[in-house]
């Protein structure tokens, strides 16, 4: 198969982890006889530094021309600590999602058995847990009208959804539920928010079209609690942009670390595959970032954008093998991990390649 992949490392550890993600794609191409060509593009802080724009036109053109995108992360402490900055790295990410119509963000919570002890949740509560989040990605408070009023002393953001936006993500989640345990949890705040009441109305209206799927509604506050209390109760979850953002960072602790969670953003055009984590300033440049979220994002890319199931599974099996051999990055190690098994980003990448 011939495919063109755009690598968009972005900022901070985004650079470090996508290097490993790309190495894994290269190895897969070699092993399975595919021809992957690559290009690179700027986004986020590095793009602002180079062009003044967090999503330069050139990047967008390259994105539209590629078959899939492997993305790192955006963000820089300079902006995090400067609320007045008008141009921000995250704007590049959000505009990319909107421009490419990436309305569905799939965030699988895949718990590798070997990492049961890496979580702060008790192993007996976690074992066998497997969740697939559908986070709506191009609506909600992220894209609603926002403003400062009152000489800057008051601010608002608008949480807004149309029925159309809810329906298209909900259909994806219903379809996925059909292929799994036929259970769908919809998470909202319909006891308070009008946009959530619209959300719930759409889900309820769709449910009869999927009579084989059992629908459960939960409020976001209760869902956040249940995720820790009884994670195995969750299977397919559909929720809005903001609730999905928060709930999946929480869910990363089921998998052991932010460094383990991959995601696929799909919709109208080229799919974007990225870890759910950010640029992690606290560990940038130290060579300790866990590259597995990027590697597992590459696996999602092959499966979802290219339909290469065996290739995708080969990557997951390699991750499994490396973990079974006892290798860990710092974020998934514990006090019992032997020092010689704790690897940096590149060394973890090298171990993976040995298993591919
Ligand atoms: P973060 O996800 O970058 O980091 C949170 C914590 O998890 C940190 O302690 C970090 O060291 C750890 N962590 C994250 N990824 C890791 C990995 N691969 N290996 C080991 N440890 C890992 O979130 P944050 O600190 O809240 O945000 C930092 C910056 O990233 C901000 O500027 C934020 O806007 C941006 N951000 C970007 C994205 C994205 O590009 N999709 C996502 C989240 C945050
Ligand atoms: C994510 C991030 C982004 C989001 C930020 C950086 C805009 O947290 O991809 O999860 O909130 O969507
Ligand atoms: Mn997030």
TrEMBL record:
Entry cofactor note text?
Binds 1 Mg(2+) or Mn(2+) ion per subunit.
* Pathways involved: Amino-acid biosynthesis; L-leucine biosynthesis; L-leucine from 3-methyl-2-oxobutanoate: step 3/4
Q: Where is the Isopropylmalate dehydrogenase-like domain?
A: 4-352
Positions the record marks as coiled coil are none
A cellular component term from Gene Ontology for this protein is: cytosol
**Top-level division of the source organism's lineage:** Bacteria
The GO molecular function terms of this record are: 3-isopropylmalate dehydrogenase activity; magnesium ion binding; NAD binding
Site feature: Important for catalysis: 142, 189
Q: Under which EC number(s) is this enzyme classified? A: 1.1.1.85
Q: Which cofactor does it need?
A: Mn(2+); Mg(2+)
Q: Which UniProt keywords apply?
A: Amino-acid biosynthesis, Branched-chain amino acid biosynthesis, Cytoplasm, Leucine biosynthesis, Magnesium, Manganese, Metal-binding, NAD, Oxidoreductase
What is the reaction catalyzed? (2R,3S)-3-isopropylmalate + NAD(+) = 4-methyl-2-oxopentanoate + CO2 + NADH
Which amino acid positions bind Mg(2+), per UniProt?
Answer: 221, 245, 249
Keyword Metal-binding annotated: yes
UniProt-annotated binding residues for substrate:
97, 107, 135, 221
Q: Which GO terms describe its biological process?
A: L-leucine biosynthetic process
Q: Give the InterPro entries listed for this entry.
A: IsoCit/isopropylmalate_DH_CS, IsoPropMal-DH-like_dom, Isopropylmalate_DH
Q: Which HAMAP family match?
A: LeuB_type1 (MF_01033)
What does the UniProt record say this protein does?
Catalyzes the oxidation of 3-carboxy-2-hydroxy-4-methylpentanoate (3-isopropylmalate) to 3-carboxy-4-methyl-2-oxopentanoate. The product decarboxylates to 4-methyl-2 oxopentanoate.
Q: Which family does it belong to?
A: Belongs to the isocitrate and isopropylmalate dehydrogenases family. LeuB type 1 subfamily.
Q: How does it assemble?
A: Homodimer.
Name of the featured protein:
3-isopropylmalate dehydrogenase
């Amino acid at each position: 198969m011939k495919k063109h992949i755009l690598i968009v490392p972005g900022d901070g550890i985004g650079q470090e982890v996508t290097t490993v993600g790309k190495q894994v794609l290269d190895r897969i191409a070699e092993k399975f006889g595919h021809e992957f060509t690559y290009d690179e593009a700027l986004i986020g802080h590095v793009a602002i530094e180079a062009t003044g724009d967090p999503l330069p036109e050139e990047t967008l053109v390259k994105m539209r021309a590629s078959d899939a995108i492997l993305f790192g992360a955006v963000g820089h402490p300079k902006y995090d600590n400067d609320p007045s900055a008008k141009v921000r790295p995250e704007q590049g990410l959000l505009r990319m999602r909107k421009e490419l119509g990436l309305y569905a963000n799939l965030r699988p919570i895949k718990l590798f058995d070997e990492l049961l002890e890496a979580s702060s949740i008790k192993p007996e509560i976690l074992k066998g847990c497997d969740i697939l989040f559908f986070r709506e990605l191009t609506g909600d408070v992220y894209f609603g009208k926002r403003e400062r009023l009152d000489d800057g002393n008051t601010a608002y953001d608008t949480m807004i959804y149309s029925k159309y936006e809810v329906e298209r993500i909900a259909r994806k989640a219903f379809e996925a539920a059909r292929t799994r345990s036929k259970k769908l949890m919809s998470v909202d705040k319909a006891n308070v928010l009008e946009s959530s009441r619209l959300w719930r109305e759409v889900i309820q209206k769709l449910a009869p079209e999927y009579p084989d799927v059992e629908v459960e509604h939960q409020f976001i506050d209760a869902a956040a609690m249940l995720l820790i209390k009884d994670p195995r109760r969750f299977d397919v979850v559909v929720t809005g942009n903001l609730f999905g953002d928060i709930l999946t960072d929480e869910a990363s602790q089921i998998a052991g670390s932010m460094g383990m969670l991959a995601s696929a953003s799909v919709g109208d055009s080229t799919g974007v595959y990225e870890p759910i984590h950010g640029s992690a300033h606290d560990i940038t440049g130290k060579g300790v970032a866990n590259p597995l979220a990027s590697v597992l994002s590459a696996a999602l890319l092959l499966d979802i954008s290219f339909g290469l199931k065996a290739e995708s599974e080969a990557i997951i099996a390699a991750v499994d093998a490396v973990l079974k051999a006892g290798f860990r990055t710092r974020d998934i190690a514990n006090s019992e991990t032997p020092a010689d098994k704790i690897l940096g980003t590149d060394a973890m990448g090298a171990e993976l390649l040995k298993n591919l």
